[in-house]
Specification:
Elements (H helix, E strand, L loop, with lengths): L4 E4 L4 H8 L9 H10 L1 E5 L4 E3 L7 E7 L2 E6 L5 E7 L4 E2 L13 E4 L3 E7 H10 L1 H27 L2 H11 L7 E3 L4 H8 L3 H13 L3 E4 L2 E4 L2 H8 L5
Antiparallel strand pairs: 1-2, 2-9, 3-8, 4-7, 4-9, 5-6, 5-8, 10-12, 11-12
Helix pairs in contact: 3-4, 5-8, 6-7
Amino acid sequence: MTCGKYIANSLSMNKIKLLKSVDLFSELSEADIQILGDNATVRKYGAGDLIVGHTEKVRSFYLVLEGKVKMFRSSPEGKEQTLYIFGPGEPFCLCAAFSNDGFPASASALNDTLIFILPGGEFERIASRYPSVLFNMMRVMSRRLKEAMDLVDSLSLKEIPQRIALFLQHMPQDEKGGVKLGMTHRELAKVVGATPESLSRTLKKMSTAEVLKVVSGNIYVLDAQLLKALAMGEPF
């Protein structure tokens, strides 16, 4: 069952500005952007709140406005694997925009999060008027399919240092080479398919080798070339 609190029936100006910056809607008119805001709902979730459950029947378009969302699958034994982390401006549950079939994974908030939710019928109306929305959607889904395949390859064939290096290479870095995780080490362990203990040992080893350093929950890349070599499979 999903949880969360509806806090608005329309978007404020700063939320509309963010919506206009999303690639999917880059060619929409000002009027249609406003219509999206008028027909959408913004819902607030706290850390750990479930947004969409596995197999839950939904037919809506979801977009992260603030915070971070993780997509994950859980085994019958309770083991959890994080598949993807979404940040502000990123759509998720794209397959739910056109169908109310069961969703193939679950999505939950990693921290305090605001989610833009647009009914599937309204999303279809916009997509039929602006074919670019569908082309942009296909581009996003193709990229995510490739990243999902890379994740499967990483978890099955690569050692933990290489998995961490690949993850860091996919994350946006600030001007100092810092990666703001926005998640606990336990959550990061789920992303790279490791136990929290083995993740901590590996991060400490990489820190000793001056590949990176961990400060207040953020990771700073100290040697980008060595990180790249690790991601490509060079021995650590």
